[in-house]
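Structure (tokenized):
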């Protein structure tokens, strides 16, 4: 069993080392891969977001990292307000098990 795991791990490492060489096999003639968002039919906030992605991946990443916790906080507060209005009390904890 140990020999089999060594072979599997060895093959995985070899694949990770040799796979970039396969991509470089096309030589200098191969064009660089460009990843962009299609903004032809977008408007408003979605267009701004796609343009931000196209212009600067670093800025897109920074804005995304900042926005995700803020949006999570907003959704959490809204969910807490909705649950308190329908009668679910999350502020006090009573265990059902005795």
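Design, position by position:
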């Amino acid at each position: 069993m140990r020999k089999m795991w060594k072979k599997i791990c060895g093959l995985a490492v070899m694949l990770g080392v040799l796979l970039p060489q396969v991509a470089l096999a096309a030589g200098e003639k191969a064009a660089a891969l460009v990843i962009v968002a299609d903004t032809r039919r977008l408007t408003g906030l979605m267009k701004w977001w796609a343009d931000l992605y196209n212009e600067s991946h670093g800025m897109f990443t920074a804005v995304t990292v900042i926005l995700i916790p803020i949006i999570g906080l907003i959704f959490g507060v809204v969910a807490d307000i909705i649950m308190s209005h329908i009668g679910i009390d999350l502020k006090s904890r009573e265990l059902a098990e005795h």
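Reviewer-requested clarification: The chain has one domain: 2-27+36-85. The CA atoms of residues 56 and 62 lie 10 Å apart.
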